[in-house]
């Protein structure tokens, strides 16, 4: 078995290279000010254009504080986080949390409902068992998985809007907000940047993008969609966006191998195993990054037909879905708006009405 094993400094270096090449954003001539942060389990980079150095540096420093605060509240890797406090009290009592953490958990439950559980933030026991992306990554036995499956159900999360309290009804349940917290963080950073008068910026949280404004010439930014069969940042094509977020979930992001088989990190809450539905990646485009983050996982879990039906039913949301046989499907709003740059992939268009 070959789990991905990186020390944090090496991981930061490698991920930074990937982030620079993953989304090809061209045409910027303004003075650029940027900072890179490590939070939420990944490398984060914020770029600001067309502002003076002193103000930009203050704004960027605040962006780092915002990201660290959200990480401290929602990460399962930080022992004192609010999410871990909820997990520690599973089956016992409710835990009062900050408005931020409560909002993200509540939104995660909403997505669980509209996807019939394909998105489920109570996946924590299974994600901890597989531990994909860590030095402890391994393929668990079926018995181990079956033992934990009863602990995975959003229906066993009790929310109290009046007190912003959360209770997990079964002992051993665990929340894992890894599929939604980065999207929330990108929205918070983007809102802060706009409040400070920033007109042009790129927020990149480990590949979760939020684009503010347009290029200097007024054109939208060209955002490349990662080739899910490669990890070097090569794109299969591009879309043009401004004032929107783009988030991709793919089998290439984190995985382990055993006996020649790849096991990616996108786990099916119903089976405990990685989804096996002929999808390689899902990219979601919308004005809210929290929606992009949750939907990229949700659509991947739902599969091609049901996933695109969901996206097409939502206002202001679009999707690029790539299958294992190198076909590209688009939601209604993206018809005619994606440029293919890799001849190995075929643009099919819509798969559903």
Descriptive report:
It is built from 9 helices and 17 strands. With 353 residues, the protein is of the alpha+beta class. A hairpin with a 4-residue loop joins strand 4 and strand 5. The strands form 4 sheets. The protein has a 9-stranded mixed β-sheet, with helices on both faces. Strands 3-5-4 form a 3-stranded antiparallel β-sheet, covered by helices on one side. The chain has one domain: T-fold, CATH 3.10.520. Helices cover 32% and strands 25% of the residues. The N terminus is likely disordered.
What's a quick, concise take on this entry?
The chain has one domain (1-353): T-fold (Roll). The chain is built from nine helices and 17 strands. The protein has helices at residues 8-22, 53-74, 82-88, 99-114, 124-130, 142-148, 181-195, 289-302, 304-312; strands spanning 32-39, 42-49, 95-96, 157-160, 165-168, 201-205, 208-212, 221-226, 235-241, 244-250, 255-258, 261-264, 279-286, 318-323, 327-330, 338-340, 346-349.
Q: How do the strands and helices of this protein lay out in sequence?
A:
Blueprint: H1 8-22, E1 32-39, E2 42-49, H2 53-74, H3 82-88, E3 95-96, H4 99-114, H5 124-130, H6 142-148, E4 157-160, E5 165-168, H7 181-195, E6 201-205, E7 208-212, E8 221-226, E9 235-241, E10 244-250, E11 255-258, E12 261-264, E13 279-286, H8 289-302, H9 304-312, E14 318-323, E15 327-330, E16 338-340, E17 346-349
Parallel strand pairs: 15-17
Antiparallel strand pairs: 1-2, 2-6, 3-5, 4-5, 6-7, 7-10, 8-9, 9-16, 10-13, 11-12, 13-14, 14-15
Helix pairs in contact: 2-7, 4-8, 7-8, 8-9
């Amino acid at each position: 078995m070959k789990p991905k094993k990186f020390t944090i400094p090496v991981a930061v270096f490698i991920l930074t290279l990937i982030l620079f090449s993953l989304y090809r954003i061209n045409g910027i001539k303004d003075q650029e000010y940027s900072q890179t942060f490590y939070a939420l389990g990944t490398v984060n980079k914020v770029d600001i254009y067309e502002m003076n150095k002193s103000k930009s540096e203050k704004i960027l420093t605040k962006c780092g504080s915002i990201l660290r605060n959200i990480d401290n509240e929602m990460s399962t890797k930080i022992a004192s986080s609010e999410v871990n406090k909820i997990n520690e009290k599973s089956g016992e009592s409710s835990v009062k949390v900050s408005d931020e953490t409560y909002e993200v958990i509540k939104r995660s439950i909403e997505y669980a409902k509209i996807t019939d559980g394909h998105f489920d933030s109570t996946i924590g026991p299974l994600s901890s068992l597989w531990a994909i992306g860590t030095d402890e990554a391994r393929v668990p036995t079926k018995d181990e998985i079956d033992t934990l499956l009863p602990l995975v159900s959003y229906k066993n999360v009790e929310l109290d809007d009046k007190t912003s309290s959360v209770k997990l009804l079964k002992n051993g349940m665990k929340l894992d907000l890894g599929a939604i917290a980065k999207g929330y963080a990108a929205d918070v950073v983007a809102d802060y940047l706009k409040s400070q008068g920033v007109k042009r910026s790129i927020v990149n949280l480990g590949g979760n993008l939020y684009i503010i404004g347009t290029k200097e010439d007024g054109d939208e930014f060209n955002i490349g969609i990662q080739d899910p069969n490669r990890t070097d940042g090569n794109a299969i094509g591009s879309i043009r966006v401004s004032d929107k977020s783009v988030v991709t979930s793919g089998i290439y992001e984190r995985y382990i191998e055993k006996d020649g088989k790849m096991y990616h990190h996108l786990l099916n809450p119903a089976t405990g195993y990685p989804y096996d539905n002929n999808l390689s990646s899902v990219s979601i485009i919308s004005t809210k990054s929290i929606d992009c983050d949750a939907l990229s996982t949700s659509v991947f879990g739902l599969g091609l037909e049901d996933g695109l039906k969901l996206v097409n039913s939502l206002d202001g949301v679009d999707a690029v879905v790539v299958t294992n046989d190198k076909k590209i499907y688009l939601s209604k709003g993206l018809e005619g708006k994606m440029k293919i740059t890799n001849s190995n992939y075929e643009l099919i268009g819509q798969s559903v009405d």
